[in-house]
From TrEMBL:
InterPro entries for this protein: eIF-2B_epsilon_N, eIF2B_epsilon, Nucleotide-diphossugar_trans
Domain of life: Eukaryota
Name by which UniProt lists this protein: Eukaryotic translation initiation factor 2B subunit epsilon
PANTHER family for the chain: TRANSLATION INITIATION FACTOR EIF-2B SUBUNIT EPSILON
CDD domains: eIF-2B_epsilon_N (cd04197)
Stretch forming the signal peptide: none
Location of region: Disordered: 1-24
Species whose genome carries this gene: Homo sapiens
Biased composition (Gly residues): 1-16
Record Gene3D superfamilies: Spore Coat Polysaccharide Biosynthesis Protein SpsA, Chain A
Length: 267
């Protein structure tokens, strides 16, 4: 029988070449420092990520969530009480050769904010593709598969901008899971879910929105105050002016045209 491949080599090899490449291994950046004194003086002698919940350190819950999500490599950045965190991780299952999630520990006394950590991530060229960004005290079992798919699709459509997908859960303002320090009001494009404005509400009685938000959108703008920030984000690997004020009050930066933030709700 004659082969289906002609002189141009349009046989099975061409079909395989046309197949879409699988996504690269998922990575995560875990910040094992809160850069605040919320749990002080308890956290004076023990870092917050090692505080026990049901006899399990908080950071172990976070790593369990990342592993269940499909993360294969996690960079743990430590500053305060870094030696204790490193000792805990080296003795845990996460640093065993059989671990599905390879944990790499990076310590420095120079980190003073999340911005310092992310600048170091960029300087060391640690991430090669989209990555999850979380703090070391996140406890979650949500399925973020849809959020990852939406993020990757958006990256294909918006090739010239950095993309960050923020994960929120719908929660009424009076719900007991809400924390006053984390309350936010968000303006979102009704069609694309693009975040147009993001503002923390602690200590504020009035909110100011740029008039341009409502003048420049033809599809409508939703102003949401019923969202709980899960502190889980999916980021593109390019250096980007992330809205660090979401993570740390001392860093006040604004959204730029080079960064597209989108909102993804989970149930």
């Amino acid at each position: 029988k004659r082969s289906g491949a002609g002189p141009g080599g349009s046989g099975g090899g061409g079909a395989r070449g046309a197949e879409e490449e699988p996504p690269p291994p998922l990575q995560a950046v875990l910040v094992a420092d809160s850069f605040d004194r919320r749990f002080f003086p308890i956290s004076k002698d023990q870092p917050r990520v090692l505080l026990p919940l049901a006899n399990v350190a908080l950071i172990d819950y976070t790593l369990e969530f990342l592993t269940a999500t499909g993360v294969q490599e996690t960079f743990v950045f430590c500053c305060w009480k870094a030696a204790q965190i490193k000792e805990h991780l080296l003795k845990s299952k996460w640093c065993r050769p059989t671990s599905l999630n390879v944990v790499r520990i990076i310590t420095s006394e120079l980190y003073r904010s999340l911005g310092d950590v992310l600048r170091d991530v960029d300087a060391k060229a640690l991430v090669r593709s989209d990555f999850l960004l979380v703090y070391g005290d996140v406890i979650s079992n949500i399925n973020i598969t849809r959020a990852l798919e939406e993020h990757r699709l958006r990256r294909k459509l918006e090739k010239n901008v950095s993309v960050m997908t923020m994960i929120f859960k719908e929660s009424s303002p009076s719900h007991p899971t809400r924390c006053h320090e984390d309350n936010v009001v968000v303006a979102v494009d009704s069609t694309t879910n693009r975040v147009l404005h993001f503002q923390k509400t602690q200590g504020l009685r009035r909110f100011a929105f740029p008039l341009s938000l409502f003048q420049g959108s033809s599809d409508g703008v939703e102003v949401r105050y019923d969202l709980l920030d899960c502190h889980i984000s999916i980021c593109s690997p390019q250096p980007t002016p992330l809205p660090f004020h979401r993570w740390h009050n001392s860093l006040q930066t604004t959204l730029t045209t080079k960064l597209e933030m989108t909102l993804c709700e989970v149930s």
